[in-house]
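PT: before anyone asks, these are the final sequences, not the draft ones from last week. 362 residues across everything. Please model them as a single complex and drop the result in this thread when it's through.
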Amino acid sequence: MSETTAHGQSPHTQALHAQDHGQQHPIRLYLFVWGLLFVLSAFSYMVDYLGIHGYLRWTLILLFMMLKAGLIVAIFMHMAWERLALVYAILLPPVLVLVFVALMVSEADYTIFTRLAFFGATP
Amino acid sequence: MAQTIETHGGADLRPAGLRGVAADFSSDQRAFKTASWGKAMMWIFLLSDTFVFGCFLIAYMTARMSTPVPWPNPSEVFALHIGGQDVPLILIAIMTFVLISSSGTMAMAVNFGYRRERRVTAILMLLTAALGATFVSMQAFEWTKLITEGVRPWENPWGAAQFGSTFFMITGFHGTHVTIGVIFLLITARKVWRGDFDVERRGFFTSRRGRYEAVEIMGLYWHFVDLVWVFIFAFFYLW
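LR: through. Structure below.
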C-alpha cells in the first residue's frame, strides 16, 4: 500500500455518506451542459436546414454527434467522476462495434456489386 | 457486512490511472469500487442495450449501402407544411429538443435527490416523465403521418423499400425504451414523493433499503435513451 496516490475524485463528494458515493456537483455545471447540448443540437439541425452536402455534411454530423454523446456520458451520466475500471469496462466494448461496421461495409459493397452485375440497375 | 467493510475508508487512497484499473480488477473483491452493484448493473445493462441499437444501426447502414434504388431523402420525408412552406425535419428537431430538455430536468432531479430535497426531486422527475410522454406522442404523430402517406415496412412512395422497415424498427424500439422509461420514472417519482429514500424503506422487489442512488440509476437509463436518440438523429435523420 506504499504506492498510493489520491485519485481524481471531485471535492464536492465530501458532504455525503461514505457508502453513498453520491454524485454531488454544482447545478451551474448541469445548466451549462444543458445549454451546450441545445446549441449543438441546433448546429446539427442547421447542417440539414442550410443544405450542406458531401464530406463536410458527414464530418459536421459526426462531430456534433460525438460532442453531444460525450457531454451526456461524461457529465449527465457522471462517467467523468467514476473510477477508471468502470469507465474502461463500459466504454471500451462499444468501440469494438466499429469492427462490425467495417465487416458490414465490405459485405454491403459486395452485395451492391453483385446486384448491379446480375440485375442491372433494378434490384 | 463484508460489503461495507471493504468499501469503507480507503476510497481516497486507491491508486489512480491504469495502475488503479489493475488494482481494482485484481483486488479479489468487487471490481467497481465507487459504483454500487445497482449502478454497475445498470451500466452493464446499458452496455448490452448499446449493442442492440448498434446492431440496428449497422443493419440500416448495410441496407442503405447495398440497395441500388435511391434512398428517400429524410429532409423531405420528415418535412412539415407550416405557414405555406415546407420546413425540413422540423418535427424531429423539436423532438430532439424535448428529449434533451428531459435529460436536463433528469440531471437536476439526481442533483436535488442527493441534497435530500424530495419534493423538488419528485417534481423534476414528473416533469421529465411529462417531456418523455410528449416525445412519444410526437413520435406517434410522425408514425401516423408516414403511414397515411403510404410508408410500409415493405414499400414507400419515394424510393428504397428498406426505408420503411428500418424506420419502424429503429424508432419503434427507441420509442418503446422511452415509454418504459416514463413508467420507470413515475414509479421512482412516487417513491421519492412518499419519502421512501429518506426512511430507507425497503423495495417491494429487491427488499433492499431505499437510497437516493435509485434516482441516479433511473437517471442513467433516461440519459441513455437520450444518448441513443443522438445517434438515431445523426445517422437516420441527418445522414
